[in-house]
């Protein structure tokens, strides 16, 4: 009886050892901001358009410190040692705004937000992530919603609400490979918003309502 009990405990002990080894792995940190993006906000006095960013809406399943991937059964799994560099919503905001503000004609409004009496057109921007899939070695998908409203609100018409979806193949099987694809998708999102801002403010022509 004791021999049988000892044998039954061996697999449990081995599993515990493996789990302990995995738990000792050093964490890796990732960002959605592409390495080439400028992190400097252009001077307000040189800009033709000001953007006032609001909070970012993200699904509860993604609002975690861990990078979340899809399993084979389409279930979401947080990876305990693969972490975002900052809070997930902030990662999205920094990545998208980094592309929007890379054009010197656009600047982020001062910390106080909307400045009454400023002659520069000002727009409130709200970002939302509806879906963000990471299927390692397969694909990356981003479904996004955003809105732009000329300020002051209520005096310049209703906000323009836009939606877009992107999906790209992930060329490798690592988390870094998938994150690199999502960095490119965040840039595409930011480019759409940049074109929309410049079109609505009259800086460029031939741009449809949502920057397409």
Automatic annotation (TrEMBL):
Q: Which Gene3D superfamilies match?
A: ABC-type transport auxiliary lipoprotein component
Q: Which domain of life is it from?
A: Bacteria
ABC-type transport auxiliary lipoprotein component domain: from which residue to which, for each copy?
A: 30-189
The answer, when asked if Plastid is one of the entry's keywords, is no
Residue ranges annotated as coiled coil are none
Q: Which UniProt keywords apply?
A: Lipoprotein, Signal
User: Any signal peptide, and if so, which residues?
Assistant: 1-19
Q: Which organism is it from?
A: Brachymonas denitrificans DSM 15123
Give the matching InterPro entries. Answer: ABC_trans_aux (IPR005586)
What protein name applies here?
Answer: ABC-type transport auxiliary lipoprotein component
């Amino acid at each position: 009886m004791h021999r049988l009990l000892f044998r039954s405990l061996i697999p449990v002990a081995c599993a515990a050892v493996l789990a302990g080894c995995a738990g000792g792995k050093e964490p890796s940190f990732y960002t959605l901001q592409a390495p080439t993006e400028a992190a400097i906000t252009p001077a307000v006095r040189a800009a033709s358009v000001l953007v006032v960013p609001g909070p970012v809406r993200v699904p509860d399943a993604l609002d975690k410190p861990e990078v979340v991937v899809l399993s084979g059964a389409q279930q979401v799994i947080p990876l305990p040692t693969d972490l975002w560099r900052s809070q997930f919503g902030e990662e999205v905001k920094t990545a998208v705004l980094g592309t929007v503000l890379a054009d010197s004609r656009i600047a982020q409004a001062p910390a106080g937000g909307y400045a009454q009496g400023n002659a520069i057109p000002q727009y409130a921007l709200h970002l939302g992530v509806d879906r963000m899939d990471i299927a390692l070695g397969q694909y990356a998908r981003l479904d996004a919603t955003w809105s732009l409203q000329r300020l002051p609100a209520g005096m310049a018409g209703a906000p323009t609400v836009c939606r877009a979806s992107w999906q790209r193949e992930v060329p490798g099987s690592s988390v870094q490979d998938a994150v690199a694809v999502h960095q490119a998708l965040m840039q595409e999102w930011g480019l759409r918003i940049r074109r929309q801002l410049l079109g609505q403010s009259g800086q460029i022509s031939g741009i449809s309502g949502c920057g397409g």
